[in-house]
């Protein structure tokens, strides 16, 4: 498979040309990430220049070869990929599995061959017989609340580890703590917007990777984060800007370390 070329046009550590391989690109996204096993949460989203998060209801309409390359690579340096159940349904997720090349990158970096798949659902409106569970390469997790229906918890427990991370809604800090206690401290989330908004409100986001697609989409598409605002806007620091040949921009922002 031909890699979509990326040029790193700005970063805190320097510039890189178009010939950057996958290991180089992974290094861009691993700079300044913790290695002490502490909980750490990254979000990955794509949006148009005018802020649309979907085209015709799906984020795939905004994607490019470069975005898909980074999307796949960001599943490498993590223990678990966390996605809201609504996004799983809307975007048509199947069993979460990384391919052979990315699996080798994972093991070379000290991770398991496959990441765990964490599905966030308050209602637990999930089918235990869905192939997301029955064909999963490793046992998924369902992240829910202490108010969740007991019968649905029992049914899903046959095919997944069910963990409560909040009372009436999933709390980002509880989720981080619970996953770290399960041996899954490096958390990579692919949305959706309501989950991102909840993580922002709870102060749980450490890293944001945003692809800016060179499109004007307009319409009634939402934004990448929705929900109650935090007590104050969360400041971030720009870590790098990468550019694809088609003028897609790939941005990475990190939460500054506490003084």
UniProtKB/TrEMBL annotation:
Transmembrane segments: none annotated. GO terms for molecular function: 5-amino-6-(5-phosphoribosylamino)uracil reductase activity. Keywords: NADP, Oxidoreductase. SUPFAM superfamilies: Dihydrofolate reductase-like. The keyword NADP applies. It comes from the Bacteria. Residues 39-249 form the Bacterial bifunctional deaminase-reductase C-terminal domain. One of its GO terms (biological process) is riboflavin biosynthetic process. Gene3D superfamilies: Dihydrofolate Reductase, subunit A. It holds the Pfam family RibD_C. InterPro entries: DHFR-like_dom_sf, RibDG_C, Riboflavin_Biosynth_HTPR. Pathway: Cofactor biosynthesis; riboflavin biosynthesis. This is Pyrimidine reductase family protein.
